[in-house]
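User: Show me a protein chain along with its predicted structure.
Assistant: Here is one chain, sequence first, then structure tokens.
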Amino acid sequence: MKKETISELTKMQLGDALFALMKEKPIEKISIREIANECGFPRSTFYYHFDDIYDLAAWFLASETVRCLRDGNGGHAILWGGSLLRLFESVKENYRMLRGVINSTSFWRISDSYCTRCVNAIAPDLMMVVPEAAAVDQEFLRFLTAFYGHSMLDVCVKWFRGDMTSEPGEMVALLDVIIKNNFLSTLQAYSLMPGLRIPLQVQNQNLHSIA
């Protein structure tokens, strides 16, 4: 088995262990030793892959998010339609597991790293399946993906906490109206303005790749 495959399997085991423990108690009360013991690993294995528990949580959530988005669209993650429906269905199916992190006082400490990891995986997928995305520079595509990604995270959290009572299909229908056409029209408009550049750097860090 390739070293990269073994590494990904190890990280998934650590992630599974963390979220199994989070069914029992909040993330702030879970130790790295507990996670390692759940997997039968020494603590050094954890630190080889992750900086701390929050780093692991962000990686695992991003991995599962991208997997759902890809499953809903034939292997490529996009931000609307079947991809989004599969994500909302998964959130509903895994309520008990997700409750421990979303209701955590540390959730927003995780969210930036989580969103960056998602953008790192989603933007290349968009370039492969959305012609308008392939026509703009990668920096702007990442900026636009991050903009909608952070907005969708906030909506999804409010929905999860019960502030919105719609079923997954209803939420996706609403978000499709807001996101899909606006996302595509923004890409088209930007492609007609070759001198325009965004005045900031969107993070493009190698954060334990989830590809």
